[in-house]
Amino acid sequence: MLNRQQVLAAFEFRHACKQFDPAKTISADDFQLILEAGRLSPSSFGFEPWRFVVIQNPALREKLKQTVWGAQNSLPTASHYLAILCRKDDMRFDSAYIDHFMREVQHLPEDSVERKRERYRIFQQRDLNLLESPRALFDWGCKQAYIALGNMMTAAALVGIDSCAIEGYDQEATEKILADAGVLDRDKFGLAVMAAFGYRINPQPAKTRQAAKDVTVWVD
């Protein structure tokens, strides 16, 4: 197990790396570790709304530069470039995806399937009002995708790999490029967030954060 100092060192090491060394490539084993950190991440009710698309095709990366303004330097230089997609209507309590997931992935017995579906229905319809609009349901799924993203970037930092989360893009235009490339079914998925991984080429800037006392409240 890692000790406290090793964990904190990884968080100190991690920063938003905007440009990578194009001569350095992440090994297949190390990038698989990053993907596993995402796959093993927690999600609400354990329903895993995400899909990870690793974009290595140079022509597609070049095309994405037209719409992803936040990755002008990382798209050409990152060792690995990732789009995290999130399911849309599939995440409804009454969808075929959720039924399949409970039975074939979670292997729940029949009575547990029905109890979980009902609890999930109440959660979506009443507790968080997620079914008021397709956007509300999609945004809820994207919140979970960010859990996976955070775990992937932390896993990368733990093995000395740099990363940068990327939200700076035209959603409509970028989704169209991914759909035209055959990697995004827009009826079922939307783009939640992107991320670049590689090795820094410039020195890390000084890390600035608020003091712990300014962001933490204890209720005893």
Polypeptide structure, described:
This protein is an alpha+beta fold. It has a domain at 17-88 and 145-215: NADH Oxidase, CATH 3.40.109.10. 45% of the residues lie in helices and 13% in strands. The chain has helices at residues 4-13, 28-39, 58-64, 74-77, 96-105, 110-127, 134-158, 171-180, 212-215, and strands at 50-54, 80-87, 162-166, 189-198. It has a 4-stranded antiparallel β-sheet, sandwiched between helices. Helix 2 (28-39) packs across helix 7 (134-158). The two termini are 31 Å apart.
Tags for this entry?
four-stranded antiparallel β-sheet; 220 residues; globular; 13% strand; alpha+beta
Helix-strand layout with pairing:
Layout: H1 4-13, H2 28-39, E1 50-54, H3 58-64, H4 74-77, E2 80-87, H5 96-105, H6 110-127, H7 134-158, E3 162-166, H8 171-180, E4 189-198, H9 212-215
Antiparallel strand pairs: 1-2, 2-4, 3-4
Helix pairs in contact: 2-7
Number of DSSP helical runs: 9
CATH class label of the domain at 17-88 and 145-215: Alpha Beta
Distance between the termini: 31 Å
CATH topology of the domain at 17-88 and 145-215: NADH Oxidase
What structural class is derived from the secondary structure elements? alpha+beta
Kindly report the name of the CATH homologous superfamily of the domain at 17-88 and 145-215: NADH Oxidase
Q: Which CATH architecture of the domain at 17-88 and 145-215 would you pick? A: 3-Layer(aba) Sandwich
Q: What's the rounded overall pLDDT mean?
A: 97
